[in-house]
């Protein structure tokens, strides 16, 4: 799930990150024909977490749908965030055969459990819905200052890892008849009006092993498998869920 938000150039060459929200919270999905049935089952289970707690609805794609999400298997976890207004297809790549390669007697040891896959898929789906990484909040430097050496965000040390650094500005918009309607622009100074909490270590979008609190206390590593309460609140606010 690390370094998983696609379109590096789009995100890194601009101070303004733009995320298109889905109309009425309905996300048409198309699963690649080569996905195995048990993988499809895990994907549907991951979607269900959103159905249970928010007004987001993943619905099977039909030709009448303009924007849709397409999920396929690949060698990484990767997502386009929100709707894709360039080619209408929000592509999600899932590394469902992912293996941690641990050198123990030179044997590869498979350690990705079903729960870990579920977390990774929910993490990607959260980006599809429109959430950015919790540790990339524009105000995150008020709360956290550096990384643990073990962190997968190692490039953060060189201040060059675009999936780990704070975002300057996030502009949410919706599409209506090919016209962009701005919804909100989140920057350092107004984020608390939208996301009314400090950095949420339980967020499904957080990298749990990376950060140290401002007071130099190591953050306890919290590894949650479901959407956090604040993730749910954020989604409900963005989509005006009743
Ligand atoms: Zn991510």
UniProtKB/TrEMBL annotation:
Residues 13-242 form the Peptidase M12A domain. Keywords: Hydrolase, Metal-binding, Metalloprotease, Protease, Zinc. Gene3D superfamilies: Collagenase (Catalytic Domain). SMART domains: ZnMc. Pfam families: Astacin. Its EC number is 3.4.24.-. Zinc metalloprotease. Provoques deadhesion of endothelial cells from cell cultures, and also degradation of fibronectin, fibrinogen and gelatin in vitro. Its role in the venom is not fully understood but it might act as a spreading factor that facilitates diffusion of other venom toxins. Alternatively, it might be involved in the proteolytic processing of other venom toxins or it might play a role in extra-oral digestion of prey. Monomer. This is Metalloendopeptidase. It comes from Dermatophagoides pteronyssinus (European house dust mite).
């Amino acid at each position: 799930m690390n370094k998983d938000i696609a379109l590096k150039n789009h995100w890194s060459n601009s101070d303004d990150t733009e995320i298109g929200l889905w109309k009425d919270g309905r996300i048409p999905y198309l699963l690649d024909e080569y996905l195995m049935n048990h993988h499809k089952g895990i994907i549907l289970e991951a979607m269900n977490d959103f159905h249970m707690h928010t007004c987001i609805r993943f619905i099977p794609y039909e030709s009448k749908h303009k924007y849709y999400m397409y999920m396929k298997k690949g060698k990484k976890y990767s997502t386009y965030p929100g709707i894709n207004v360039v080619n209408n297809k929000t592509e999600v790549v899932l590394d469902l055969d992912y293996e941690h390669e641990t050198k123990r007697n030179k044997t590869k040891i498979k350690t990705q459990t079903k729960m870990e896959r579920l977390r990774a898929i929910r993490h990607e789906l959260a980006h599809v819905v429109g959430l950015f990484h919790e540790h990339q909040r524009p105000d995150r430097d008020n709360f956290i200052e550096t990384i643990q050496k073990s962190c997968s965000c190692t490039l953060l040390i060189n201040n060059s890892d675009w999936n780990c650094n704070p975002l300057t500005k996030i502009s949410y918009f919706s599409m209506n008849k090919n016209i962009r309607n701005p919804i909100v622009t989140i920057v350092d100074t107004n984020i608390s009006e939208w996301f009314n909490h400090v950095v949420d270590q339980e967020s499904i979008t957080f990298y749990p092993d990376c950060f140290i609190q401002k007071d130099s206390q190591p953050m306890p590593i919290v590894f949650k498998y479901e959407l956090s309460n604040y993730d749910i609140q954020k989604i409900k606010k963005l989509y005006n869920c009743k």
